[in-house]
Amino acid sequence: MYVLDDNGVKAECVVTDEGDGVLEIKNIAVVPECHGLGYGRALLDFVARTCKGRYSVLQVGTGDSPLTIPFYEKCGFVRSHRIEHFFTDHYDHPIIECGVRLVDMIVLRKEL
Ligand SMILES: CC(C)(COP(=O)(O)OP(=O)(O)OC[C@H]1O[C@@H](n2cnc3c(N)ncnc32)[C@H](O)[C@@H]1OP(=O)(O)O)[C@@H](O)C(=O)NCCC(=O)NCCS
């Protein structure tokens, strides 16, 4: 788990080793009052710099949502594949973002 501290905790994420040189970002979150200030990008860049050379790919899975996909794309991730029905199969309640129910998980990847 990585925590970004800038006069107090501003962001965190968990990074898991998925095997075959692939690392996965889980549960990245920035303190709500601090969205849009660059903390999310700084945390992803830090993880990429820290793990470069030991791993080949950084990946993340997210819903097909305008709240998250553009953020990852701005940070250099590209869409890799989709896991169909992930959110409907694994959660016991609907997850709605921007008025749309999340169904598939979109996996994005960035070469390290
Ligand atoms: C998604 C999240 C981590 C982004 O962190 P952030 O600190 O707000 O993002 P940054 O300020 O580092 O943004 C980096 C770039 O992405 C862009 N961006 C961020 N969110 C965006 C959005 N919803 N739509 C379009 N662009 C977005 C920023 O404008 C910035 O681009 P720029 O450098 O060209 O200006 C943050 O919004 C968050 O914690 N959300 C709630 C939890 C969550 O959804 N986590 C993701 C789970 S998959």
From TrEMBL:
- Does Protease count among this protein's keywords? no
Note one Pfam family from the annotation: Acetyltransf_7
Molecular function, one GO term: acyltransferase activity, transferring groups other than amino-acyl groups
The UniProt entry, under CDD domains, shows: NAT_SF
Q: Does the keyword Disulfide bond apply?
A: no
**InterPro entries linked to this entry:** Acyl_CoA_acyltransferase, GNAT_dom
Superkingdom: Bacteria
All copies of the N-acetyltransferase domain together span 1-112
Print the keywords alphabetically.
Transferase
Which species is this record about? Bifidobacterium pullorum subsp. gallinarum
Q: What is this protein called?
A: Acetyltransferase, GNAT family
